[in-house]
Amino acid sequence: MTPWSPATRASASGGKATGRQPRWEAAEAASPEEIATAVADTECMAANNVAGVWFAVESAYQKREIEANSEKLEEVRKAIDTSMRVAEEITPQV
After folding, report:
1. pTM here?
2. Which residue from 6, 31, 70, 94 puts its CA 20 to 30 A from 25's CA?
3. Cα separation of the two ends of the chain
């Protein structure tokens, strides 16, 4: 996310921290500064594909964990299948 930081600094926020700010949370309406910061933050994230990068990295982590724990996950899947089958057997059909 290195490119994102310079993009934010060059924007309307002037490199100020984005996100939740106590001074903004106390206000009843968004200030022009808050709106400009939110717009700059959104534009920078879109320009640098932050959501796409986040998704790709998160997916890779999840795939690695699934592969590393496939046997345990299969045991859990079988237990869930058994529980569902038992629940169907004892639950009256309406």
Report:
1. 0.57
2. 6
3. 54
Q: Domain of residue 22: give its range.
A: 1-48
Q: Give the number of domains in the chain.
A: 2
What is d(CA 12, CA 49) in angstroms, rounded to the nearest whole number? 19
Per-residue model confidence as pLDDT tens digits over 25-58: 888 899 999 899 889 999 999 999 999 999 999 9
For CA atoms 16, 18, 21, 25, give the dihedral sign.
positive
Q: Closest Cα to residue 39, out of 27, 47, 29, 28?
A: 47
Which of 72, 6, 71, 67 has its CA nearest to residue 40? Answer: 6
Query: Is the pLDDT score of 71 beyond 80?
Result: yes
Do residues 38 and 70 both lie within one domain?
no
